[in-house]
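W.,

You were right to be curious about this one. When I first looked at the sequence I had no strong expectations either way, so I just let the prediction run and decided to look at it fresh. Below is the sequence, 401 residues in total, followed by the output.
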Amino acid sequence: MRLVATALLVLMAAVFLTCRWLGPVHPAIGFVRAFAEAAMVGGLADWFAVTALFRHPLGLPIPHTAIVPRNKDRIGDTLANFLRSNFLVPAVVARRMRRADVAGALGRWLAQPETRDSRLRAGAGRLFGDLLEALDQQRLGGMVKATIGNRLRALDIAPLIGQALAAAIANDRHLPLINGIVHWSGRTLEANEALIRGVVHERAGSLMRWTGLDETLANKIIDGLQQLLVQMGEDRGHPMRAKIEEALGQLAHDLQHRPEMQARVDRLKLEIIENPAMQAWLDGLWESGRHALLRFARAPGGVRRGRLGEALRQLGETLQREPKLAAAVNRFTRRAAVGFAADYGDGVVRLVSETVRGWDTQTVTQRLENAVGRDLQYIRINGTIVGGLVGVALHALDVAL
């Protein structure tokens, strides 16, 4: 475009010189000469204006030229402040994100991944895999484990367990638990008959052992316990089952409202978290998750054909089918974006400003000129044509007067 604009300017100069050489051989020559003369003036003026933005015209240090190189730092600060004021304001981000259906787009992509942006997805997967492998795995795993541990430590688990237990009792979902306790007790009793007989034999007197009453007593105890367990298993209204249900209800209440019970559960939770076996399990959990992420990044098609792929497709269909879930995802995304703008907006502004300040003047000039140079050369062309038209109008006015 620069060559076109310059060639047009040279053409106007050639037309002007030709008209001067020909002289007043015809009245129309005056109009052509006026057009070419004014077009040269307009083209030269716009050439000067466009050139003065990025460098000194003809290398001459004319005041108020080379505007971009001289004001590089101010341009960077202004651009950064523009971003901060118009794009990284939490209210603006929230308003724009409110119109974005992130859940819908995610749901469609998960439900039909093979039909959308395969090259972009594959490239992003490879980039993510390379990045994950390049990170310090020991440090990253420690960060993940510490994050999970901190979350577990901060979680007030006792009321949650109490609420879950109360809901289970209200919907009779605790009955399998009671039945399991009864069946386990029956198997335990059967496995420890010899132990019970031995205890009764030791505690019985010599007379009972001599007469064999200790064996009879042991049989009675075992038979009575077995009959009790059978009755508890068959009769939902058995008094012992009622006692167990009452104890479970009291436990649910204590977990939700009794500080002593909550403190006891919290201490037990901390002991479990600090247990070496638990720490080893967290390490294994991180490694399993990391390998799964790497498999997904390296071969997303293969993963999608497995159980994980089916789960992802179901998740995508659910996101499209459940408005409440989609609204929750969109709300979370909006809050995350607003939080990013609020927490890191100033950092982004500093990054932009410091990056532009770090560029040399030639880099800034080239990048800005490459970005808007084509339009600026159109300005030169327009200035040449408009100047010529103005020259024709003035010449016509002069002839008329």
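Here's what jumped out at me. The mean pLDDT is 80. And, maybe more interesting for your project: Residues 361-400 form the longest helix (40 residues).

Coffee later to discuss?

I.
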